[in-house]
Design goal:
Radius of gyration: 18 Å
Number of strands: 5
Mean pLDDT: 95
């Protein structure tokens, strides 16, 4: 989403505003956590429910669900899996909030990382980087903005890659 709600809105609901974030906070705060988890080479991710605060994804955490990231999994596929996990987790979280059985947990700022909005130019492949990094960029930025290079002066989208043993 990438936008902040004003404090007067956040303070309105009796149980507070609750968000489902597609990362294991405080890692990958921001608008594109799914893509950045893959691009950064994370081996696992998940969803976190949290109380919304004035900062970007800085509120107290309520619950988490963890899942591995497959070595060939794309941003699109991971998005779909995390959507289902998030839907189930928010139902559980809201029931726990209503029952008063949840204990909010502060985020440890030492482990906070950012997941900024992705821009098209971020998908350009730099062949000076290791093969594993290029593979992660291709997977993370599929289907949008898609990784790319230039061939004969034309943009060439790279939709799938494979890292051969000894080439990481």
């Amino acid at each position: 989403y990438g936008k902040l709600l004003p404090k007067e809105i956040l303070d309105m609901p009796r149980l507070g505003c609750v968000n489902v974030h597609a990362s294991l906070l405080p890692r990958h705060r921001g608008a594109s956590p799914i893509q950045w988890a893959i691009v950064c080479g994370d081996r696992e991710t998940g969803v976190t429910t949290m109380r919304m605060a004035e900062g970007m994804d800085t509120g107290d955490m309520l619950e988490k669900a963890v899942t591995p990231i497959g070595p060939e999994e794309t941003g699109e596929a991971l998005h779909d899996r995390l959507s289902e996990m998030g839907a189930a987790l928010i139902v559980k979280t809201l029931k726990g909030l209503e029952a008063g059985t949840l204990t909010p947990e502060k985020q440890d700022e030492r482990y906070a990382t950012k997941a900024p909005i992705i821009r098209k130019e971020m998908g350009e492949l730099d062949f000076h980087k290791p093969a594993a990094e290029l593979h992660n960029l291709v997977r993370g930025f599929y289907p949008w903005p898609a990784a790319y290079t230039f061939l004969g002066g034309k943009r060439l989208k790279v939709l799938k890659t494979k890292v051969l043993s000894g080439m990481s």
